[in-house]
Amino acid sequence: MFTSLDVVKVGIAQLDVATQKQTIRTSGLGSCVGVVIYDEVKQVAGLVHVMLPDSSLSRGDQLTVAKFADTGVPALIDAMKLKGANAVKLKAKIAGGAQMFKFTSNQDSMRIGPRNVEAVKNQLRKFGIPIVSEDTGGNSGRTIEFNPQTSKLQIRTVNQGVKDI
Amino acid sequence: MDIQQNITSFHLDVLKEIGNIGAAHAATALSTLLNTKIDMHVPQVEMVSFNDMMERVGGAETFVTGIYLRIEGDVAGGMFFIMPVEQANQLIRKLIHEKSFDFAQSPSELGLSAMQEMGNILSGSYLSALSDFTKLKLYPTPPALASDMFGAIISIGLIEVSQISDYVIVIDTSIIEHEENAKEEVSGHFFLIPDPNSFSTIFTSLGVG
Known about the structure:
The complex is a heterodimer. Chain A is of the alpha+beta class. Chain A contains two helices and ten strands. Chain A has a single domain (6-164), classed as CATH 3.30.1330.200. In chain A, strands 1-3-8-9-10 form a five-stranded mixed sheet, with no helix packed on it. Chain A has a five-stranded mixed sheet with strand order 2-5-4-6-7, with helices on one face. Chain B is α+β, with helices and mostly antiparallel strands. In chain B, a hairpin with a 3-residue loop joins β3 (63-73) and β4. Chain A: It is an enzyme of class 3 (hydrolase).
């Protein structure tokens, strides 16, 4: 049986939640990290496209919560509860955090990928959400799509094809 | 100065002129290198959301070859030269006379270094023109090369600005190679993304602060 599902698209520094009969996708992750949190029983899945590790880096007037790991993960959990997810049953899959360019420079912005991954993991640990699988680091861009019915996260790259984690 | 709240159409025109001068010099350099005619489009200078930025080269997933360098000095920012990968292939095939060269499939060292060198020449001529025009000191890092999804590549240029805003001011100039009888044209985008606190320096240097 194959039915086509609606795709919920999540942009950079955004978050959203998919329910049954939907999948949720974000495209072109480089140093950013895509965090999928899901409730297998209720088949509710949220995704946040994190750009930066910590909101203390913000020097602007307004805070876009989905941009940062430390604000994006809690905001995603809240958004999922509103869609009926059970907070104690949550699991996570994460992907991204690549280093797209090989520089000799030790500039902070070049190491942003690993820092994003680390910050996301800290947040998930804080909320007691286990990471079931991850595809992080490396130097490839990734497009990811999660299906709440199968709990599979599909990862697409330009050089290594497609795989599920 | 909070540039994003106070920017006027006059400021945008000044930035367009910067794109014009930089890209015109780069186009001349490329034209000499390839011995063909290179045209350029009128620069586009806009304040766009990060997600609209992704649409500039056909979406976050578009497979591109990109050269990236970081500028330090009086003005800081990121600079990219981006081409759809198939067009970058054509360009390098012509440059090194290697018909099967492909960025997507184990590209030869020769082709990669040719692209790297082209990035050097193009960004170098863009930035030296910009430096002459503004009398500002610009110190670019050596350009780095990657072939991947546009979103994954351009996002490194958004890291600095993302600490302040959800919008980016981008100076976007494209150059096109026209060849007689060619079915497709080869085109590339220059994206100059100054860090937010560099705008006042640029404007002051041109007497429009």
